[in-house]
Amino acid sequence: MRTWGVLFVLCGTIFMEGVDVALLNVALPAIRADLGLSTAMLSGVVSAYVLGFGGFILLGGRAADMLGRRRMFLTWLTIFVLFSGLGGLATEGWMLLLARFVTGLAAAFIAPAGLSLITANFAEGTVRNRALIIYGAVGGAGYSLGMVAGGVLTSFGWRWVFFAPVIFAALLLAAAIPLIRDNGERTRGRFDLAGAFTVTGAMLLLIYGVVRLEHPDLWAVPIFATGLGLVAAFVAIERRASYPLVRLGLLKTVSRTNVSATLFMASFSAFQFLVTLHLQEERGWSTLTTGLVMATMGVDAILGPTVTPWLIRKYGTTRVIFAGSAVGAVAYLLFLPTGVDQAVLVMLPALLLVGVAFALAYGPYTIAATDGVAEREHGLAGGLLYTCTQFGMALGVSAATAIYATGSLQTALLIPVVGAVLAGALVGYRGQTQSLISGASSPRSRV
């Protein structure tokens, strides 16, 4: 029972992280009106979380493996509580920027620690896979349901979108202290500081460059060039380091999974962003009405823990992720003809299918992220996955924004279609390769 109690706390944390992002997105207009923020400052409030999360998550994964998952989880959950509260008390734009950056930084340490705590507390096989799928499904549901909650909380005042996560996180922290134990094997050695600073700088610059694509200018080129230069420097450092931050062999093991996850999340986030703009700006709907319709995609919270584990046992992780990508592509195609005069009921099948696609793919990606990886590196493997999903979300939203500003909704909707197709193609190619190697198709094939 204690083990499932741990899962409940960890799921609560990933749910909170998803809700936290969605809550702020819905409350942005009210925040701007109250504090008089410029468009650039408002965009910075959103980007600050992404920069903190994506920039430091590899370091967070390594810290969990070396310093202890429990210690990192509890320490950074406490910091999350404190700085989310600061956001609720903010009277100036810089206070919101600081609060969102540090909460993103805290999430960068919490997320990989939480994922590796699951792999440490559940035995490898069916039970662990079910726990990971539940974990992933709850995280996705947090984002979907957070849009509805954001509309409700904002009606009482935008500060509640910061205070509500404080209350929830404080309750989770109180439950986590007696429940969570760190039974996992720790990585020995010392921190690769040169690698940590280099890759953190690279991630910060690349994600910042992606965010700037929303309003492209001449600075985008040197930002990307410097980021890619730091990536090259990071690879060179890791080749020579005695205790590398990221073992290059690990990158080879999980690279196809992570690239596929990047494309899948780019397509998913781009679609959500575009539909939100369509419903509010083109149809003139309120945030609450928009959130209620978008909550249709929350079907993944039901299907993820119930249907997806059965499908994995029967068909294997690879085929289930491929099915999720295929269903997603079909859903995005169904939404393409949508216009202002189209009835809401016509949109619902596409939104439901998007939820089904997320249920089929996201949870299995968390399994694939640690598949074939030594337990002592599970925190780092989780960090790699979350880096890619966060980068994918930033890439999807930025690309969708850039195209939506210059073209039509239908043109921008081609981004999620292409992303889902490419994500599925990577998984299908990997599955076909493994089948050729093994001489036969196996339901146990891995991504």
How many β-strand runs? 0
CATH-level-2 architecture: Up-down Bundle
Distance between the termini: 31 Å
Q: Quick one: overall form?
A: globular
| Spans of at least 5 consecutive residues with low confidence | 432-447
Number of domains: 1
Mean pLDDT: 82
CATH superfamily placement: MFS general substrate transporter like domains
* Binned strand content: under 5%
- Total helical elements: 16
Detailed description of the structure:
- This protein is an all-alpha fold and 447 residues long.
- It has 16 helices and no strands.
- It has helices spanning 2-35, 39-67, 69-88, 93-121, 126-156, 160-179, 193-212, 220-240, 248-282, 287-294, 300-315, 317-335, 344-370, 378-406, 409-412, 414-438.
- The longest helix is centred in the middle third of the chain and has 35 residues, at 248-282.
- The protein is globular and about 60 Å long.
- It starts with a helix and ends in a 9-residue tail after the last helix.
- Residues 432-447 have low confidence and may be disordered.
